[in-house]
Specification:
The protein contains 13 helices and five strands. The protein is elongated, with a radius of gyration of 21 Å. Strands 2-1-5-4-3 form a five-stranded antiparallel beta sheet. It has 272 residues and is an alpha+beta fold.
Length: 272
């Protein structure tokens, strides 16, 4: 029997909706933290029985208009709405052990030569670090090739102390992993990773249960680096074409800023 990813997603997202935000009275005795099933069904214009079948996995083929109505009620943004549609019509997929993934020679040359002064790392869809230039490795222990970036984020105390906005960073990391795996939550490699992180981090368990999805490619990292000091770095995440979800992540500072100067100084220490 296939996993009920669609139902789990619907249930998690309705728990996060404040009834007052959809025009329903709040307060009183409510046995659920968000919307009741019958409230979602009423607002979406479908029967309570049909919605119950969706959550329980007895009906996993809702029409696009029904999905759009549910997305509106659950206040999903564009990325989350796309994810909802993907969960409702996943492509058949056979899971095999992850291949020995390689980063192309061109990308290797780009990050190690052309971008030597810019921290750059390549991740696969499981967030394993496939390649990183020396400056990226010096910036964070989570960038060491062979490690798993999301595992480091939650289980490596050095990473937690490095990020001043660790809470925000972990929210982004979990939402990014959800976006990368899409409907493939029953991939054995993902199941193993999620089980490990759930056992080792209450924060991860809480964030994973929210089912947040975000492929957002930009943001800001605030760090307190042991050598460079306080850094404010922008990051860009670029999906590499022709790969099975490989992601190029680069950090950079605003030109002429104190962070740019500190990053340049850190780079010089690597060549001495």
């Amino acid at each position: 029997m296939s996993a009920n990813h669609l139902g789990n997603y619907l249930r998690a997202r309705r728990d996060l909706v404040d009834p007052k935000d959809v025009g329903l009275p709040g307060g009183g005795r409510r046995r659920v933290p968000g919307l009741r099933r019958e409230e979602v069904a009423l607002l979406a214009g479908i029967s309570s029985e049909y919605y119950l079948r969706l959550e329980q996995g007895r009906d996993q083929n809702p029409s696009p208009p029904v999905l759009d109505a549910l997305a509106r009620v659950l206040q999903l943004d564009l990325d989350a709405t796309r994810h909802l549609h993907t969960l409702a019509s996943p492509a058949p997929r056979h899971f095999s052990p992850p291949p020995d993934e390689r980063v192309t020679l061109g990308i290797q040359q780009l990050i190690n030569t052309s971008w030597a002064g810019t921290p750059a790392v390549v991740l696969n869809r499981y967030m394993d670090v496939l390649a990183a230039n020396p400056l990226a490795i010096a910036l964070s222990p989570s960038n060491q090739p062979g490690t798993n970036a999301i595992r480091s984020a939650f289980l490596d105390p050095r990473v937690r102390s490095l990020y001043l906005n660790w809470g925000e960073m972990t929210i982004r990391a979990v939402a990014s992993l959800r976006a990368l795996i899409g409907p493939d939550g029953n991939d054995p490699s993902i199941v193993e990773l999620v089980n490990e992180l759930s056992a080792g981090s209450e924060t991860f368990r809480r964030l994973w249960a929210r089912h947040d999805v975000s492929p957002r490619g930009t943001g800001t990292s605030h760090m307190d680096h042991p050598q460079a000091g306080r850094l404010e770095l922008r990051y860009e995440r670029l999906l590499l074409a022709g790969t099975d979800g490989q992601l190029l992540v680069v950090h950079h500072a605003d030109p002429g800023s104190p962070s740019a100067q500190k990053l340049a100084q850190l780079a010089t220490t690597l060549s001495t």
